[in-house]
Amino acid sequence: MILGMGAPELILIVLVCVVLFGPKNLPKLGTALGQTVKNVREGMEETPDEKDDATSQATASQDAAATSADSDADAATKTCPNCGATLAADAAFCSHCGHKLEA
């Protein structure tokens, strides 16, 4: 007995899974479920210090990604000297006021 269920209940659950997900997808489903259980167990075993370190590392990498995205966005835009509109870096004219931009 597993979790208070006998063989007939387990067979019924397996049959329902086969009908719902199909025999081709069952290995993928089992792998995903196993990976999830493994991650949950590892997460429960972490000490609070390890969690703080992982959180600070994740925050630092997110900040670095945001900074590089901001600098890429700034490099890909320019501002119209006439009206102040934000334009694409390769724009020859302002799409807002029509002012000719310097190359």
Structure description:
It is a single chain. With 103 residues, this protein is mainly alpha-helical. It has a domain at 7-75. The protein is built from three helices and two strands, in the order H-H-H-E-E. It has a two-stranded antiparallel sheet. A hairpin with a 6-residue loop joins strand 1 and strand 2. The longest helix has 28 residues, at 48-75. It is elongated.
Can you summarize this structure?
This protein has 103 residues and is mostly helical.
Which geometry do the CA atoms define?
elongated
The whole-angstrom Rg is 28 Å
Structural class: mainly alpha
Q: How much strand content do the residues show?
A: 5-15%
Q: Strands of the largest sheet, in order across it?
A: 1-2
The low-confidence parts are none
Q: Quick one: biggest sheet?
A: 2 strands, antiparallel
Write down the secondary-structure element order. Answer: HHHEE
Task: Give the rounded overall mean pLDDT.
Answer: 78
Helix content: 55-70%
- The termini sit apart by 77 Å
Number of helices: 3
Count of DSSP E strands? 2
Write the layout of secondary structure elements.
Blueprint: H1 7-21, H2 26-45, H3 48-75, E1 77-79, E2 86-88
Highlighted features:
single chain, mainly alpha, 6% strand
